[in-house]
Amino acid sequence: RMNCCGLLTPEKEPVPLKSIEVELEVRDHVATVVSTLLYENKEDKPIEAVFVFPLPGDAAVCHFSAVIGQTQIVAEVKEKQQAREEYDDAVSSGQQAFLLEESDQSPDIFSLSVGSLPPGESASIRLEYVTELAVQADDGLRFCLPAVLNPRYQPQGASVQVTSVPASLVPYSLSFSARVSSPRPISKVESSTSLDPLQYLNAEKTQATVKLAAGHKFDRDVELLIYYTDAHQPTAVVEAGQASAKPGTLMGDPVVMVSLYPEFPQSVMSSVASCGEFIFLLDRSGSMSCPLNNSNHQETRIASARDTLLLLLKSLSMGCYFNIYSFGSSYEHIFPKSVEYSETTMEEALKKVEQMTADLGGTEILEPLKHIYSQPCIPNQPRQLFVFTDGEVGNTKEILQLVTRNSGSHRCFSFGIGEGASTALINGLAKEGGGHAQFISGADRMQPKVMQSLRFSLQPAVVDISVMWDLPKGVSATVLSPPITAIFQGQRSLVYAQLTGQSSEAAEGCVKVKYNLAGHPSQSQVNFSLKPAEDTGLSVHRLAARSLIRSLELEQKEDEEEVDEGLRKKVVELSVQSGVSSAYTAFIAVNKSNKETIQGPLVRRNVPAPSELETLYTDISYVIFYLTFFSLCSDSSSKEDEAVVPEQPPRDPLLQLVSLQKASGCWLLDAALAAALGKTSEEVEKPKPASVGQMWATILALIWLHGFKTDAKEEWELLAMKAVSWIHAQNAPLVTECVEAGNALLGCSVQKDSLGL
């Protein structure tokens, strides 16, 4: 059903989608999104339109309806095959019908089929979904409305294909507005696109509205970052069950959503682990040669990834192990197996990283992952896997099943690069691999986000995680979310549970998450009232249902050809009961009140999704050529793609200095260091206190970092700690004199204490 049936540009045939209106309501960290899509058939015969679009991978699609003329039809959730048959029967008998279904390969691609729209008729389609907003490194909550469904890379023989055209030719308009409310004040809302100013609705600043500024072309993702004051307060929201549903069922009972932010003791956080096996897996498919973002066309995704690998490699500690894999249609590794980190192995790896380009064709991530997991783990070196990709794959489910099967042997940290990265893949890798996911888009720099994840990977693994409930007599909790597999300092952990039984309105409950951290038994807890919140509707129930549906879907074993019928039945039942879509169900709406059948043969149209090619092509004839054959930015292994080598911009001064650091943490006093500090060799040599050697060079580098690069501290903090450890190990005299002389030379006033010396 999701195959493309002809790639048609607006020049050749009018596309029926006219406008998209999006209303976003954010309550604390839960977003409800209502999209209204207006279709119009300008043809002189009835049409069937197919619109393929992305949604967040963990979204719970919970409402779908259509208005044609004066008639509203509300869709029902039914078993997928049954829904498809009803749709086909309706369309072939000339009735208007609508079908919304999730792709079999990836839970974040949906296709909407609009069948038998009569000539001149308009249809307004309303789609509603609920999603949890992810917490970013700086505590912002991220909402993303994808403008682009990048042509997902398909392994040989797969079926989903997506039409894509340059954004300037997308023939429909977008309007977007958001309303935010929280128990805590909203400090700011930022965006990758221009917004009208934030309007507060009350004096406490706990409610606000925000709109997209006029003239947005929808040529990039609309990303909102929402910041609350005191973001790390644990919360619990109880939502009443649906009055019409049977008590004892998921929709009939109250459901509680608990958000916890575990804080680790300072003593544990200061002892950063120095061991570990660090495996970096880098996407080198053709699309990695695209610009990292729309604001800076100079920097490509692959160039930014190379710079990031430099910082990562310089931040590792002596005594750990590492390896670097890169993949496209095939994969390569720098060493046959992970090697011990030393000056020699670091230099060899960096030489090879320098030469990496986006020249490996498609995005086949499954094979390198299988190879990594086939390597035996190194005793006492916990395996940490870092995956960098622009996430354009179609076999998401297969990849996640592989990660789940190996989740006991490693932690996986994932990075979605650029617009169009698959949320299902990036979030799924981290969730199943017990790690953390980051998205790098808009004007983001990759380095700070990646270094934050490296710091997470150096935190001790939290083990023996358990959730304990303390509830009034007669009330019990059934946890609906998957077990918590990873806890990181200050990062949110979510628990959904169904509350069964009766209690008084004033009753209170308590939930504790207990865990063991570096040998210290610890816990986080939140007390909550069992009185349901007034205004959440059924959003918490739907997110809980979605969470349970996802867990059940992932239980389907990859090596089992046949779908486990018991499992499938359970998912279908849950999906139909909660009105939330799943891999085994679809939304179907048929206009039964339409007495007249619609005459004439059906014309099939695919509605294009915008792509990032606008900057590459403006001539329509080239556009058709792209659609039919390939693009400079598509995952194609053709030689033409490799020929365009942009001029290298001069190296960033911070990276210049970092590249000179030795694996042990020190810097050498030479002409290259002097140049990186903006001095001559003579100027650097002259004020050096007698008999201090390499320590002088290392202190100068530290003063320069603290004096000139405080805004990028999270990028160099770990490698600076390594330098400080190296200085301490020298037991050298004259440190105070070196710091004073270094400040005088570089024109800084950095205190010895703030250097950590």
From TrEMBL:
Coiled coil: none annotated. Residues 277-454 form the VWFA domain. InterPro entries: VIT, VWF_A, vWFA_dom_sf. Residues 1-131 form the VIT domain. SUPFAM superfamilies: vWA-like (SSF53300). Gene3D superfamilies: von Willebrand factor, type A domain. PROSITE patterns: VIT, VWFA. Pfam families: VIT, VWA_3. PANTHER family: VON WILLEBRAND FACTOR A DOMAIN-CONTAINING PROTEIN 5A. This is von Willebrand factor A domain containing 5A. It comes from Anabas testudineus (Climbing perch).
